Amino acid sequence: MKRYKALTWDHPRGYNALAAAARLPAPAEAGIAIEWDKQPLEGFESHPIADLCARYDLVVLDHPHIGKAVKSGCLQPLEEVFGEERIAKLQADSIGPSLASYRFGGAHWALPLDAATQVMALRADLLASPVPMTWDAVAALSKETGKVALSLAGPHAILSFLSIAAAFGEPPAKADPDLLVSGRTGEKVYELMLDLAARSPVSVRDKNPIGILEHMAQNDDIILCPLIYGYVNYAAPSAGRAIAFHNAPRAVAGGRPGSTLGGTGIGISTRCEMSPALRDHLLWLMSAEAQIGFIPAHDGQPSRREAWRDSSVNTRWNGFYRATADTLEAAYVRPRHDGYIAFQSKASALLRQAFGARAKAKDTLSALQELYSEHRIAGSER
Known about the structure:
periplasm, D-Maltodextrin-Binding Protein, domain 2, about 45% helix, single chain, globular, alpha+beta, 2 domains, three-stranded antiparallel β-sheet
């Protein structure tokens, strides 16, 4: 029996399907055993990816870590493991940029296990008006009720900033990799967030997306969170109120739903001795059979497009997938250079401080750009 060590994140969405799949008869019959460990999601932000890959054969990771992982040489390119034709087919089957986000330096470095992006979450039973489709409508609801929450803890302040910039027509650092965002767009985004942050309920100010959704399911002081990573589990919970999920807000009706891609992928470390049985198991996790049936049935959030459009999957989860698929298809992919993760953490702290001090937009944007440039240069030099 060949044994593999694997690491994922500590949430039913990140662990249950992988652990259940490893317990199926097929892996053991093929002569392999996969042991899945788990760590808090925040651990992937703070723990060096190279160290994790030195200790595990399979590592579930987020795409912004790819630049650092490639720089350290700790992952195997998927094209070498599965072949270019298989990866091209997987790209066609994956929703939005869920696989493309793991492409860096001419190769793909992780299988898109889990697809997610920021979407709108609301308590439909508390919303007396139509679902707000634009940022103007979100701001109006905030002023009217004081019950619109921003997700600002951890890295989420800058992630929301990036998303709103994309909705306003300027995906950050895309046209010019050295420029985070122009002053004109950046000022509009900052002023909107400053306005919303001032009325965002204190009860969730320090909570991560899971904490916010848990709070919304149990309390009535928040009607809506306009940008939060979607967790299908809360669309049909075993306890508490159901959360309704919708596409992210747009700058104008019919425009792009601005959202920053999340999700996770399975990276194969260089210490992993790939066997035909492990290869087959990983490909099965990406198959229509697993993505439409097994993974959603075990609390997972699939990455295959047909799973997001599947009627039975949507019926089981109160339409979560169909209601947010357009946002995922258009999701913005963050920079992935070595150094980006450090920027993301510091930029979020900078924004929270600016909101608290009601700092001027020009000064805040200048500081953000300086921080971005510093970590972009540092990343290219390592």
